[in-house]
Amino acid sequence: MNLQKRVTADAPLLELLGIRCGDLDEPIVLYLDVRQEMINAGGMCHGGFLYSLADTACAYSLSQAGVAAATLDASITYLKPAHAGETVIARANVLKLGRRVCHSEVRLETASGELLATFRGTCVNATGN
Predict the structure, then answer these.
(1) Which pTM value belongs to this model?
(2) 74: Cβ–Cβ under 8 A, 6 or more apart, which residues?
(3) CA distances, 94 to each of 2, 12, 72, 79, 129 (Å)
(4) Domain boundary assignment for the chain
(5) Parallel, antiparallel or unpaired: strands 19-21 and 115-125
(6) What residues pair up with 105 in beta bridges, in sequence order?
(7) Architecture of domain 3-125
(8) N or C: which end of the chain has fewer CB within 10 A?
């Protein structure tokens, strides 16, 4: 599935999460405006929202490279919290396109460039290319 078709198919999920598409060339750029309802008891954005943003950016970077991918394994390292009113920017790059397995890396940053988290995804290449 090409990237534009995937974005269109994902539109309800993107809308629910509040993820907006920016640049759809590499690096893929997505945005998440942190809303009050995303804040946990600790006063910061729940990590699940950030993970969803990063996982989506990972998948889109592989789609842009022509790969239909499904996540096999992923890890995220949270370095700094995001708070209500902030915009989180995801920048995703493909690290390796393999015939069976692909790897992508995502950086989550604030609008001022502060690093919030890093994400690495390992995905199955369902296209076999």
Answers:
(1) 0.91
(2) 51, 54, 55, 58, 119, 120, 121, 122
(3) 16, 25, 15, 22, 15
(4) 3-125
(5) unpaired
(6) 93, 120
(7) Roll (3.10)
(8) C
